[in-house]
Every structure is written in C-alpha cells, then in structure tokens.
UniProtKB/TrEMBL annotation:
InterPro entries: KR_dom (IPR057326), NAD(P)-bd_dom_sf (IPR036291), SDR_fam (IPR002347). Its EC number is 1.-.-.-. SUPFAM superfamilies: NAD(P)-binding Rossmann-fold domains (SSF51735). Keywords: Membrane, Oxidoreductase, Transmembrane, Transmembrane helix. Belongs to the short-chain dehydrogenases/reductases (SDR) family. The lineage of its organism: Bacteria, Bacillati, Actinomycetota, Actinomycetes, Mycobacteriales. The chain crosses the membrane at residues 144-166. It holds the Pfam family adh_short_C2. Residues 15-194 form the Ketoreductase domain. SMART domains: PKS_KR. This is General stress protein 39. GO terms for molecular function: oxidoreductase activity.
Length: 256
C-alpha cells in the first residue's frame, strides 16, 4: 500500500450520505463524522427546525449539508427524502438507517398500536428507504448501506422485546440485502451499539441505566462519538471487503 491508497481509506470526499435520525444523539455524531471525512450529508428527522439546525451545524464544520423533514413511518416521505437528496447532490452513495422508535412495553401488555408504530419506524421504514435509494446506489461506485441495530437484537431484552425484535429483523434484512445487492457492488452492514449516552438513554430510569452500564466490561456508557469510527469503517473504502456483517460496539457486554 502507498500513501495515496492509505489516505483514501476513510476519505468520503465527493460522496453523498443520508443519515436518518440525524439531528441528535448517534445520528448527529455520525453526520458530523461524515462531513469531517469530506462527504455531503443529508440529515433527516421528523422535525423540520431540528433538521435545519443540524444541517447548519454541519455546514459550520465546513461541509455541504441539508436537512429534510422525514417521518420514517410515512411511506411517501421516504421517496421525497431520496428525491430531494438526488436533486440537491446528484445521487446517493451511502444510506445510514439510524432513526428508531424505542417503544417499551412488557410482554402480556403489548398493544397493537405500539407494535404497529415500532414496525413502521424500526423495520418497514428502513427497508423501504433502501428500496427507494436502490436505483441510485446501483450507479454509485462507492455504494454502502449501514443499518443501525442494537445489542438488544442479540441479548435478553425484558421490557424492550418489541424494539429488540424489530432490530433482529433488520439484522436479518441486512444479511439478505448484502447477498442480493453484492452483484450491484452495494455493501450492506449493521452496527449494534450498546448503551450510549444519548437523549434516548437518559429517558430511562437511573436504575435501568446503571444496570446497562453494569452489563458492560468497560463499566460506562459510550459517547455518541464512539460510534463514528465503526460506521466509517463499514461505509468507506476501509471496509471494502466487508458485507453482511454486524459490528457490536458495546463496551464488551454481549459475548458472556
């Protein structure tokens, strides 16, 4: 390997990246990482003002960025997100399915409404968004999809069974997408964070947070920024021979 090849490993210059749920938490950290790596970034979330604030912050970092208000549960919004991205930046190279709905209910008290909302945002939305972006990903020489799942997909998940089940299903779709899209040069992988210090995490009772921390070998929450390296690996040239895989970034909690 020479210097120029090495320098290209994590370089996202000239690539267009969509990050759903990109206005806060892990999504915003990933969007910042992509901008700093040279990418053009489209942040999507439900609130238009939050989208514009995040995009302005990304532009302040020196990047090209726009925000597009998008509800992952609204199918029409998915096509509009891809269309706006293509009209603004000319294509789609990387899609990061990060938006999620953390609905929690105990088994025995599951409601149809909760199951439906979780399905629409955590599974149907990401899968159909990949379909919407697929024609553009097929024409990209650097196409990659990153599905954000969760360690909940691999461990016992009391109270969080709905969320964990949807993430497990998204993991299954990740493997199927990798197999079906390999011939088109599209890599598809997943990243499964453990407990991360985000707004979503802070809504949990303190004893629940303490329990999650105690379940890690490193004994702490991750910062959202600690997810950036793994995401870049899976969507840049550095991960050019990785597809259909999941990186578990959980402080050593899962394999016990």
């Amino acid at each position: 390997m020479d210097r120029s090849s090495f320098d290209r490993l994590f370089d996202m210059t000239g690539r267009t990246v969509i990050v759903t749920g990109g206005t806060r938490g892990i999504g915003l950290a990933l969007a910042q990482g992509y901008v700093l790596a040279g990418a053009r970034v489209v942040v999507a979330s439900r609130k238009a003002d939050a989208c514009e604030q995040a995009a302005a912050q990304l532009r302040d970092l020196g990047g090209e960025a726009i925000g597009v208000a998008t509800h992952l549960g609204e199918v029409d919004d998915l096509a509009a997100l891809v269309s706006r991205t293509v009209s603004e930046f000319g294509g789609v190279d990387v899609l990061v399915n990060n938006a999620a709905n953390p609905l929690a209910q105990p088994l025995g008290q599951l409601t149809v409404d909760a199951l439906t909302k979780s399905f629409e945002v955590n599974l149907r939305g990401p899968v159909l968004l990949v379909q919407e972006a697929l024609p553009h990903l097929k024409t990209s020489p650097h196409a990659a999809v990153l599905n954000m799942v969760s360690v909940g997909a691999f461990i016992f998940a009391p109270m969080l069974s709905i969320y964990a089940a949807m993430k497990s299903a998204l993991m299954s779709f990740t493997r199927s997408m990798a197999a079906e899209f390999a011939g088109d040069g599209i890599r598809v992988n997943a990243l499964a964070p453990g407990p991360v210090d985000t707004d979503m995490m802070r809504k949990n009772p303190q004893e629940a947070i303490d329990g999650m921390v105690a379940g890690t070998l490193m004994g702490r929450l991750a910062s959202a920024d600690e997810m950036v390296g793994a995401a870049l690996l899976l969507t840049s040239e550095a991960g050019s021979y990785i597809t259909g895989q999941v990186i578990i970034a959980d402080g050593g909690g899962t394999p016990r």
